[in-house]
């Protein structure tokens, strides 16, 4: 995605779109909750208040108890001019919620002994053997020095590789990445001023090759900085897995998990299920990627492991439910329990702190935030168009919210959802004390 412009915008992006809603399922006794006809009264009130003329066309939220189908709250339609009711099977651009999926695919290969968590990247992609690091982050791209530490798989999973990201970096290095087509994501056919960053390079292999020629922003293993690491892992997965990255995800995760509505490219026959995406402009939500002509109906330049998936609330809940079941869902073993436990635990290199702009403080696992303290056991991430998905692995719970607007911190809906979800969860816990 390329939606963030200034330093202030970047900070707001991280605080708003990536923190909102995460880390609220800290209710130990909720796992014992009895069947409840209405799990989400506070969330329902928030959603009903935000859906309607001059607000959002539609919103979906969910809460899933251990081993049960999630309860969904859905209000409104898939677009201001789209009469189709929004619901658990509507399709949403989940952007960076793709990262935990790629992270878990990587954990599967690690569990199988085909990858090592601390294996140097150059053993799989030799072009990364001799990387350069900027002397000054976001400064000159010619004032560089040799990297002292090789990039590892752990670094790619946890955004500690030192790789840049066009939505984060500024100055010469962002310009260089855009020039090389290292813009890992897509937004709309419309080339919105200040958002369109140029054409993306045409294949995952070429993306990996060109990225190796770009200086690192930081020394590997020394700093958490949002990056292209999960996109690059797509190339690692297809090299090690011996099959195209998108096919690997379909065969190893989507199909056995029962995710029938998750794609990098939405089939034309399913376009009617796609919700409209909106941009916040002059205080109004302006539709800019509609289902009938969405860019997500086209084959992407390559499968973006950091931002490329479209999914439904029901499908993504199955992914979260599989993680809550430690790799198993409906009697099907999708991935080893130890792979889930490791991937949802703190994988940061020793001495490296988690996302610096996030409150409360957290660790980081395989492509997602990992809660600590009262939030221990919680893992999840969010997307740039207003989607959030999280799972409390220690208690078997999961929750999500799905809407479509950019940037997702432009309105306080996600923050209000977070507080309402906490209220509903604590109410259920108190009822079952």
UniProtKB/TrEMBL annotation:
The record's annotation in InterPro entries points to: Beta-lactam-related, Beta-lactam/transpept-like, Diverse_Enzym_Activities, TAT_signal
Q: Where is the Beta-lactamase-related domain?
A: 53-408
- Pfam families recorded: Beta-lactamase (PF00144)
Q: What is this protein called?
A: CubicO group peptidase (Beta-lactamase class C family)
């Amino acid at each position: 995605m390329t939606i963030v412009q200034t330093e202030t915008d970047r900070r707001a992006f991280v605080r708003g779109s990536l923190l909102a809603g995460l880390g609220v399922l800290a209710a130990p006794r909720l796992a014992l909750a009895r069947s409840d006809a209405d799990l989400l009264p506070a969330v329902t009130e928030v959603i009903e208040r935000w859906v309607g003329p001059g607000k959002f066309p539609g919103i979906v939220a969910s809460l899933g108890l251990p081993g049960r189908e999630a309860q969904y709250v859905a209000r409104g339609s898939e677009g201001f001019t789209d009469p189709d009711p929004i619901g658990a099977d509507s399709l949403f651009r989940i952007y960076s919620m793709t990262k935990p999926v790629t992270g878990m695919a990587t954990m599967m290969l690690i569990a199988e002994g085909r990858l090592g968590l601390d294996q140097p990247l150059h053993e799989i992609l030799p072009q990364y053997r001799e990387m350069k690091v900027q002397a000054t982050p976001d400064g000159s791209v010619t004032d560089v020095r040799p990297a002292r530490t090789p990039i590892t798989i752990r670094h790619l999973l946890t955004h500690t590789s030192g790789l840049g990201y066009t939505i984060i970096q500024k100055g010469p290095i962002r310009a260089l990445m855009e020039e090389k087509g290292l813009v890992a994501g897509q937004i709309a056919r419309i080339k919105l001023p200040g958002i369109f960053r140029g054409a993306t390079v045409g294949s995952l292999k070429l993306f990996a090759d060109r990225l190796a020629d770009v200086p690192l922003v930081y020394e590997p293993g020394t700093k958490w900085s949002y990056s292209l690491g999960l996109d690059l892992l797509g190339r690692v997965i297809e090299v090690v897995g011996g099959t195209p990255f998108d096919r690997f995800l379909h065969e190893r995760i989507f199909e056995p998990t029962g995710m029938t509505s998750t794609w990098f490219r939405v089939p034309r026959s399913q376009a009617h299920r796609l919700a409209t995406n909106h941009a916040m402009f002059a205080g109004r939500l302006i539709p800019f990627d509609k289902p009938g002509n969405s860019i997500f109906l086209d084959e992407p330049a390559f499968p973006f492991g950091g931002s490329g998936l479209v999914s439904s609330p029901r499908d993504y809940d199955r992914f979260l439910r599989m993680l809550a079941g430690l790799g198993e869902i409906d009697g099907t073993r999708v991935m080893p329990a130890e792979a889930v436990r490791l991937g949802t635990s703190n994988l940061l290199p020793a001495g490296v702190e988690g996302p610096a702009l996030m409150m409360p403080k957290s660790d980081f696992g395989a492509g997602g935030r990992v809660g600590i303290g009262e939030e221990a056991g919680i893992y999840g991430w969010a997307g740039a168009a207003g989607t959030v998905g999280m799972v409390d692995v220690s208690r078997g719970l999961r929750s999500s919210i799905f809407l479509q607007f950019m940037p997702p911190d432009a309105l306080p809906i996600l923050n209000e959802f977070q507080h309402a979800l906490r209220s509903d969860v604590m109410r259920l816990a108190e009822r079952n004390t």
